[in-house]
Specification:
The protein is of the alpha/beta class. The chain folds into two domains: 178 residues, Alpha-Beta Complex (Aspartate Aminotransferase, domain 1), CATH 3.90.1150; 254 residues, Type I PLP-dependent aspartate aminotransferase-like (Major domain) (Aspartate Aminotransferase, domain 2, 3-Layer(aba) Sandwich), CATH 3.40.640.10. It contains 13 helices and 16 strands. A seven-stranded mixed sheet has the order 6-12-11-10-9-7-8, sandwiched between helices. It binds pyridoxal-5'-phosphate. The site of pyridoxal-5'-phosphate has 14 residues, from helix 4.
C-alpha cells in the first residue's frame, strides 16, 4: 500500500491540528496517523496515494447510504439552492419528523441535534426534568457520547472495573470532575436480578436508564427479549424514564430500529448516524408526555444554532426515503448473510480463535476470547488487542478499511451501496489475512 502522500499530509496537518486530525478516534494505530481520503464513492474510499479502499468502517456507522449516494447529493443540492438556511425552520424539518414518527415505535414528537452526544445529553436532561430525580443507570460496555455525565465504563480494564454485580464507574477521560460519579450507577448488561436490586435500593434517586438496545459499541450484543421486557416493566413501575440510545442501532436492522426488532418500546430514544445519510444530525424522539418536558412546552432546555440545519435535514430526508423502500433491507440482509456466514466459515476452518457477532448492517470481531457467545462486556474483556490490531493492519495493507479503535472490540459495517462482489472481495482478503496470522500466532 502506497502511503507517501498521506504521510506528507500528516506532517503538514500535525503542525496545526492536534495529532493531525479532527477527532481522537480518527487515529490509525497501524498507519501511526489518521487516514486522509480525497474521494468516497459508493462502497469505496480513495486516499491521496491513489489507493482504492473498500470501506468497512462506513464513517463509524454514519454512512449506511455509502458515499456520494445520488439521492442524498440531490437533496443536499436542493438545500444549497434554498440558501444554506441555518437556525431557521423550513417545511423540511417537519416532514422528516413525520417520517420518523411513522417508522419508530416510541416516536411521537421529535427534536434534532447535531451529534449523538448532544442527543443523549438532552434525552437525559428531559428524563431528569420529567422525574425530578438525578441518577442515571448506564451499562458496562455501552457508549453514549463524549461528555462527563456518561463517559464511564465503556471498555474498562478488569483491574479497574470492580465487582461484576456492582461495577465501578471508570471514567474514560481525564478532566472529569470526581463528583459526577454520584449521578451514575454502572451495571452489567443482560442481568435482570442485578438491575432489579439496583432499582429497589435507589428508586427515589433514579431518573432514567440509558442503554444501547443492541450493544454495537462492543461489537454486537443483542439482549434477551425477556430481559428487555422486564426492564420495561421495572422502569414503568418505578417512575424511571427508559432511554434507548439508538445513535448507532437506529435503522441498522430495519426501519423500526432496534426497538422494533426487540419488540420493546422505550419512553425516549436517540437516533443518529444512519439517519443523516452521512451528514451531521441526530434526533431525540419519544412519547409525548416525555418530550413535552422540552422547552417551551416544558422547562428542560434544548436548543442550538445549528440544530435542525437544513443541509443535514435534507440529507436525512433522502436517507429516510430510501430506508423506507422495500429493496433496502432486502439488499442489506443479503450482504449481512453472505458476510457473516463467510467469516464464520473462514474463522471456523482456522486454528485461530476469531469470532464474529453481527446483526443487520453492523458487526464485531473478537480475538481469542474464551466465551463462545458475548452477552455483555466482561465476556469480551479478554479480547487479544495485539491480534486484533494485527488483523486490521493486514486488512488495511490489502485495501480494506476496518477502523482499529485502539484494538478494543468495536463495530464495523457496510453500506447499502456495497455489493455482493465487495463482500466476496472482503472475504477473500480476510481469508488471506487469517492465513498470514496463522504464521504469527
Ligand atoms: C450509541 C452511541 N451513542 C452516542 C454516540 C455519540 O455520538 P457522536 O459521536 O455523534 O457524538 C455514539 C457514537 O459512536 C454511539 O455509538
Amino acid at each position: 500500500m502506497e502511503r507517501k502522500e498521506g504521510d506528507k499530509l500528516y506532517e503538514f496537518a500535525r503542525k496545526y491540528m492536534v495529532s493531525g486530525g479532527s477527532a481522537s478516534a480518527r487515529w490509525s494505530i497501524s498507519m501511526k496517523r489518521p487516514l486522509y481520503f480525497k474521494d468516497g464513492t459508493g462502497s469505496k474510499l480513495t486516499d491521496y496515494d491513489g489507493n482504492e479502499i473498500i470501506d468497512m468502517c462506513c464513517s463509524h456507522g454514519g454512512s449506511i447510504m455509502g458515499h456520494k449516494h445520488p439521492k442524498v447529493v440531490e437533496k443536499i443540492k436542493e438545500a444549497l439552492d434554498m440558501g444554506i438556511l441555518c437556525s431557521y425552520e423550513t417545511k423540511h424539518q417537519g416532514e422528516l419528523a413525520q417520517k420518523i414518527c411513522e417508522m419508530v415505535p416510541s416516536a411521537e414528537l421529535c427534536r434534532y441535534s447535531c451529534s449523538g452526544s448532544e442527543a443523549t445529553m438532552h434525552a437525559i436532561r428531559a428524563a431528569r426534568a420529567h422525574t425530578g430525580k438525578d441518577v442515571i443507570i448506564k451499562f458496562e460496555g455501552h457508549f453514549h457520547g463524549y461528555y462527563d455525565y456518561v463517559q464511564y465504563s465503556w471498555v474498562p480494564s478488569l483491574e479497574e472495573a470492580g465487582p461484576y454485580e456492582r461495577p465501578n464507574a471508570v471514567p474514560f477521560s481525564s478532566g472529569m470532575p470526581e463528583g459526577i460519579k454520584d449521578y451514575i450507577i454502572i451495571l452489567p448488561f443482560n442481568n435482570i436480578e442485578i438491575l432489579e436490586k439496583a432499582i429497589k435500593g435507589n428508586k427515589d434517586r433514579i431518573a432514567g436508564i440509558i442503554l444501547e438496545p443492541i450493544n454495537y459499541n462492543i461489537g454486537c450484543v443483542v439482549p434477551d427479549k425477556e430481559y428487555m421486557e422486564q426492564m420495561r416493566k421495572l422502569t414503568s413501575d418505578n417512575n424511571i424514564v427508559l432511554i434507548y440510545d439508538e445513535i448507532l442501532s437506529a435503522f441498522r436492522t430495519g426501519p423500526d430500529c432496534a426497538q422494533g426488532y426487540l419488540g420493546v418500546t422505550p419512553d425516549i430514544c436517540t437516533i443518529g448516524k444512519c439517519v443523516g445519510g452521512g451528514t451531521p444530525i441526530s434526533v431525540i424522539a419519544g412519547k409525548k408526555e416525555f418530550m413535552e418536558n422540552i422547552a417551551p412546552l416544558g422547562k428542560s432546555t434544548h436548543s442550538g444554532t445549528y440544530t435542525g440545519h437544513l443541509i443535514p435535514v435534507m440529507g436525512a430526508n433522502a436517507a429516510v426515503d430510501e430506508i423506507r423502500k422495500p429493496y433496502f433491507y432486502e439488499h442489506m440482509y443479503k450482504l449481512a448473510d453472505r458476510l457473516y456466514s463467510g467469516m464464520n466459515e473462514i474463522f471456523g476452518k482456522s486454528r485461530l480463535n476469531i469470532k464474529v457477532q453481527g446483526l443487520g448492517a453492523r458487526f464485531g470481531l473478537y480475538f481469542d476470547v474464551k466465551k463462545d457467545v458475548i452477552k455483555e462486556y466482561r465476556d469480551c474483556a479478554d479480547n487479544n488487542i495485539e491480534m486484533n490490531l494485527k488483523f486490521y493492519e493486514l486488512m488495511l495493507n490489502k485495501n480494506v478499511y476496518f477502523h482499529d479503535y485502539g484494538g478494543r472490540t468495536c463495530h464495523h459495517g457496510f453500506s447499502i451501496q456495497h455489493t455482493l462482489g465487495d463482500i466476496d472481495e472482503v472475504l477473500n482478503r480476510i481469508e488471506d489475512t487469517v492465513k498470514e496470522m496463522e504464521q504469527i500466532y
